[in-house]
């Protein structure tokens, strides 16, 4: 390297200057001992010898001596120098005439002298020896040579005493010598001293199997006869040492959760304590957590058990806690509480374990905790008749009591507390109830379960009015009831059921049978809860049935009416309507008479049944006419002796008449529709009884009796008229021999035809004998009238005599 540098410099000088090329002459130290310095120099061209002179650097002018070398010698030694002194050596290249061609110099120190042997050697540890030696003046560096019989050789440079010789093998003998070193070189080694390193530290392991002990164990150390374990409680100034010849040691009665610093060493057979191991930190296991407290925490989404605890004492280092339950839920934390996720109705046996790097503690005393109950399931609802409803549910484990909430649609709320599985509450018809049940125990209430939505049956309608609108129709009206969407109205009797469904609070049930006791029930219905079948029935009878089979019998002025009575119980009213108004008879049987009906009338008969339920329809009508009337007045007028004109007044109800004049001497009849008739074959001078049979158009007959009738006296018979000569006439008749006087009268035709006055004035000639004298101036027709004078009335018998 030195050569190289020079070459480089040389090259640079060559390039820069030719003159400088000649000064490339150089001297350098090859080596030096405490008394001799070996020098080398470069060849100088033309030199025939080289002279090396020596002086102390401190006084360079005082040359101590010089040595000459031949031209071919480029290395030489200078001896008899003093140790450890800096000299300046100068080489001169001399030519044949001893002139100096060039020179170069170098400063070099001689090496120191060999040193005293090392004074003491102490093992520092199993790999280090400490050597103490006397320092040498002017020497700043020393070399300690370490050898052993196993061929170990090493030289360590040291600068001061004591010096550590490291990296040795444990429990090994070494021989050590020391050399002084200066810039020129090293001294001779001192005489050797032997020393042995101590035993190495045992390789040990610690653990804390319990919270009051630590186990230390180690691998056996070769040559060791005993071991020492030192235990130092952290932050305390005490150290306890344990000696043992075992390879393990259990240290007990320690405090839980504290840091112990542990080191070990081995003793060799010669009683030397070997190297101390490094401290190892070992904590004892933590104490078991205590005062474990469990409570329920809830948040919006989940429930948990908040477990908290304490440690009885301060411990070293950080702890982790593990909380576990037999239900296989755990939580880990470094604080002194954590939350176990739990569900409802669970039995937890909770233990907490604290852990440090030594391991886990004993578990804490188990705490048994029952979580809040699960929500009761299978809510069901049982209605009962008296307006109390029962809510039932399935009991759940670990529940102490239950609280049921019953909320009505209109907002009112009821609750009930029980330890059993049911609860009775007041329930009203026509309402919706929302029901829920919470279970409770010491840990709190269950979460909300399913809500039971129950709608009670609609309320029974009030003010139900059943009225018969006709014999076969009932109209039912009521006030609308709560919760009803539809009403099912049903009328039932023993044999039939009539239904009508409507949303309106009115219904007409028709086509009912008459005279039945119907039971009418209005059942309100809604879609959710069906129909309320518990509503009161309303009994209603239908009106009686109409009587049938009407029979009439006429007797005199009385009509007997009978019918078929087909009702359970009814009063019957017979009505006879005629011209003169109405006649009525009433009975609860099946016949009655209507008396005193006037003659000659037609009546319409009908029967109607009446009961508390109403009136039946009237029966079909039947007509009945009474017997025709007799004419009030009858007049019998004798027209001729043998012929009578009978006239009579109007007879109501009569259409034809048979008039009879009856006498023992014969009788006369006439049959007519008129109110008069002519009857012949009347025997004069006879008392007749007068009777009449009147017939109505339908053939009813009345027999009427009248005052008797006497026919006129018999007319004179054998009337003969003779004209006498003096214009008189003579009338002759055969006397009837009766008590009547006979008057003959002559009248003219004119008088006869035109009037009484004429009759009287013109010709009033009456004769009571058989002869009338009358004179007529003219030729006239003359009638001869012959009157039979009766006591009471006179009958004129006309004879027309043409003359
Ligand atoms: C050494 O010699 C030189 C010249 O030869 C001179 O200049 C110098 O002063 C001397 N030094 C000492 C210490 O005498
Ligand atoms: C030798 O030592 C002296 C005194 O310390 C110094 O003046 C001189 O330059 C040195 N010579 C060389 C070649 O180092
Ligand atoms: C401790 O040492 C004893 C004796 O040397 C030995 O019987 C025992 O097994 C050792 N225990 C352990 C844990 O190494
Ligand atoms: C042992 O613990 C102490 C205290 O915390 C610490 O200062 C030291 O460095 C630890 N030693 C080891 C070997 O971890
Ligand atoms: C509720 O608790 C659960 C676990 O206990 C947790 O995961 C969740 O984040 C919590 N929610 C709120 C809102 O605190
Ligand atoms: C907890 O887990 C263990 C092991 O997996 C199992 O045997 C045990 O039945 C579980 N316990 C419960 C309550 O689930
Ligand atoms: C809690 O720690 C234990 C060991 O300490 C481990 O087995 C478990 O898995 C951990 N659990 C959780 C939730 O981190
Ligand atoms: C129905 O409820 C009423 C009021 O709560 C109560 O007085 C009555 O005893 C209950 N009836 C039954 C059968 O439980
Ligand atoms: C039921 O218990 C709760 C809480 O104890 C109380 O608030 C409520 O009033 C009770 N209800 C009845 C009906 O007693
Ligand atoms: C309701 O609870 C009572 C006790 O309070 C019990 O005797 C009865 O059997 C229960 N009823 C039902 C239907 O479970
Ligand atoms: C209860 O049921 C009725 C009918 O199904 C429904 O209209 C109502 O919304 C329900 N109420 C609740 C709270 O579920
Ligand atoms: C009335 O409703 C009931 C059930 O609500 C049904 O059984 C019946 O057939 C209905 N009647 C009529 C006439 O619609």
TrEMBL record:
Residues 1-21 form the signal peptide. It comes from the Eukaryota. Keywords: Signal. InterPro entries: FN3_dom (IPR003961), FN3_sf (IPR036116), Ig-like_fold (IPR013783). Pfam families: fn3. SUPFAM superfamilies: Fibronectin type III. Residues 21-113, 200-287, 543-629 form the Fibronectin type-III domain. This is Fibronectin type-III domain-containing protein. It comes from Oryzias javanicus (Javanese ricefish).
């Amino acid at each position: 390297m030195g050569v190289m540098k020079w070459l480089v410099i040389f090259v640079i000088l060559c390039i820069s200057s030719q003159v400088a090329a000649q000064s490339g002459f150089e001297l350098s130290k090859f080596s030096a001992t405490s008394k001799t310095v070996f020098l080398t120099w470069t060849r100088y061209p033309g030199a025939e010898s080289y002279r090396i002179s020596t002086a102390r650097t401190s006084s360079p002018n005082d040359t101590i001596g010089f040595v000459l070398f031949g031209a071919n010698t480029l290395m030489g030694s200078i001896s008899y120098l003093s140790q450890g002194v800096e000299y300046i050596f100068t080489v001169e290249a001399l030519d044949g005439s001893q002139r100096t061609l060039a020179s170069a110099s170098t400063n070099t120190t001689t090496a120191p002298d060999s040193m005293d042997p090392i004074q003491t050697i102490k093992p520092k540890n199993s790999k280090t020896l400490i050597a103490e030696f006397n320092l040498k003046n002017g020497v700043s560096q020393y070399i300690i040579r370490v050898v052993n019989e196993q061929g170990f050789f090493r030289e360590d440079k040291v600068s001061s005493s004591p010096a550590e010789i490291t990296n040795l093998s444990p429990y090994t003998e070494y021989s050590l010598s020391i050399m002084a070193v200066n810039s020129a070189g090293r001294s001779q080694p001192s005489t050797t001293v032997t020393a042995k390193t101590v035993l190495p530290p045992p390789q040990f392991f610690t653990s804390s199997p319990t919270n009051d002990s630590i186990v230390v164990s180690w691998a056996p150390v070769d040559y060791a006869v005993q071991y020492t374990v030192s235990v130092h409680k952290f932050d305390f100034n005490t150290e306890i040492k344990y000696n043992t010849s075992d390879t393990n040691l259990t240290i007990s009665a320690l405090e839980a959760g504290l840091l112990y610093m542990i080191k070990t060493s081995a003793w060799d057979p010669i009683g030397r304590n070997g190297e101390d191991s490094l401290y190892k930190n070992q904590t004892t296991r933590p104490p078991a957590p205590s005062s474990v407290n469990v409570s329920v925490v809830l948040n919006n989404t989940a429930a948990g058990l908040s477990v908290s605890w304490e440690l009885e004492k301060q411990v070293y280092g950080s702890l982790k806690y593990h909380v576990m339950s037999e239900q296989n839920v755990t939580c880990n934390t470094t604080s002194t509480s954590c939350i176990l996720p739990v569900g409802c109705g669970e039995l937890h046996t909770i233990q907490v374990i604290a852990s440090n790097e030594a391991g886990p503690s004993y578990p804490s005393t188990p705490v048994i905790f029952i979580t809040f109950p699960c929500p009761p399931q299978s809510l069901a609802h049982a209605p009962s008749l008296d307006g109390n409803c029962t809510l039932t549910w399935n009991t759940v484990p670990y529940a102490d009591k239950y609280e049921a909430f019953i909320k009505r649609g209109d907002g009112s709320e009821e609750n009930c507390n029980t330890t059993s599985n049911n609860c009775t509450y007041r329930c009203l018809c026509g309402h919706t109830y929302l029901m829920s049940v919470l279970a409770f125990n010491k840990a709190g209430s269950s979460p909300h379960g399913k809500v039971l939505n129950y709608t009670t049956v609609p309320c029974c309608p009030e003010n139900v009015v059943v009225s018969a609108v006709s014999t076969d129709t009932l109209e039912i009206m009521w006030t609308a009831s709560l919760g009803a969407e539809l009403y099912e109205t049903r009328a039932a009797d023993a044999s039939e059921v009539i239904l009508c469904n409507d949303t309106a609070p009115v219904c007409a049930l028709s086509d009912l049978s008459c005279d039945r006791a119907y039971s009418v029930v209005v059942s309100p219905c809604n879609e959710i809860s069906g129909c309320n079948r518990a509503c009161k029935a309303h009994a209603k009878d239908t009106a009686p049935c109409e009587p049938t089979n009407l029979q009439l019998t006429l007797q005199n002025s009385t009509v007997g009416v009978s019918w078929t009575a087909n009702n359970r119980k009814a009063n019957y009213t017979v009505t006879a309507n005629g011209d003169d108004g109405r006649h009525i008879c009433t009975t609860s049987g099946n016949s009655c008479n209507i008396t005193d009906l006037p003659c000659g009338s037609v009546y319409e008969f009908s029967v109607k049944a009446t009961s508390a339920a109403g009136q039946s329809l009237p029966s079909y009508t039947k007509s009945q006419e009474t017997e025709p009337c007799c004419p009030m007045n009858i007049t019998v007028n004798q027209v001729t002796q043998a012929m009578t004109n009978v006239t009579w007044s109007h007879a109501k109800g009569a259409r034809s008449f048979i008039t009879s004049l009856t006498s023992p001497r014969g009788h006369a009849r006439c049959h007519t529709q008129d109110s008069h008739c002519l009857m012949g074959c009347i025997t004069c001078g006879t008392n007749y009884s007068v009777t009449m049979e009147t017939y109505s158009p339908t053939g009813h007959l009345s027999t009427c009796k009248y005052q008797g009738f006497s026919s006129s006296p018999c007319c004179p018979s054998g009337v003969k008229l003779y004209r006498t000569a003096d214009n008189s006439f003579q009338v002759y008749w055969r006397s009837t021999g009766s008590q009547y006087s006979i008057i003959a009268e002559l009248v003219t035709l004119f008088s006869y035809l035109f009037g009484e006055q004429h009759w009287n004035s013109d010709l009033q000639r009456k004769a009571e004998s058989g002869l009338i004298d009358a004179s007529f101036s003219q030729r006239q027709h003359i009638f001869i009238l012959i009157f039979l004078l009766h006591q009471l009335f006179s009958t004129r018998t006309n004879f027309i005599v043409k003359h």
